[in-house]
């Protein structure tokens, strides 16, 4: 009888940890939304322009998204990605929030700087048959927009991603934290369409 009480206590403890982590994720999301609101309010004097993007990169996978240039030298990106496969490990999804700062002189043809320093965070979720894995990376990289038409650009990216965490939650409510190589290469290619 005593043993079953121990297992109930352990299950309660695991459920509490999972709820605590969800609360932390909600706090991060609220912080990002407040940051965006600040940028949008600052941009009211400027014309807020947006770009549609599609591409492939590591760790964001194949992704599509939208970018908001809230001031002439800065922008926010929101990307959603997947690996498009559904094998025994399940399907992998990624959500990336990114901030870019443009540097160097403006290009005379496009009246904007083409080089940018980017920083962001990627959340990856893989849901399998009996477990759910969540991981996160901090991305730091350089990018250059290469014009191929008046409103179409190709952007190669190169930098590094810092591994923050990975946790696997199993059906039996056990949670396991994993450690990986801390720094992995960040690279990709993106097609940008100005709207």
How would you describe what is shown here?
- With 195 residues, the chain is an alpha+beta fold.
- Helix content is 21%, strand content 55%.
- It has one helix and ten strands.
- An eight-stranded antiparallel beta barrel has the order 1-2-3-4-5-6-8-10.
- A hairpin with an 8-residue loop joins strand 3 and strand 4 (91-103).
- The longest helix has 41 residues, at 2-42.
- It is elongated, with a radius of gyration of 20 Å.
- The mean pLDDT is 79.
Strand portion, in percent?
Answer: over 45%
Structural class: alpha+beta
How many DSSP E strands? 10
Q: Helical residue percent?
A: 10-25%
In angstroms, what separates the terminal alpha carbons?
66 Å
Low-confidence region ranges: none
Describe, in short, the structure shown:
By secondary structure, the protein is of the alpha+beta class. It is built from one helix and ten strands.
List keywords for this structure.
195 residues; alpha+beta; 1 helix; 55% strand
List the helices and strands and how they pair.
Blueprint: H1 2-42, E1 49-58, E2 61-71, E3 74-82, E4 91-103, E5 115-127, E6 131-144, E7 146-147, E8 152-170, E9 175-178, E10 183-194
Antiparallel strand pairs: 1-2, 1-10, 2-3, 3-4, 4-5, 5-6, 6-8, 7-8, 8-9, 8-10
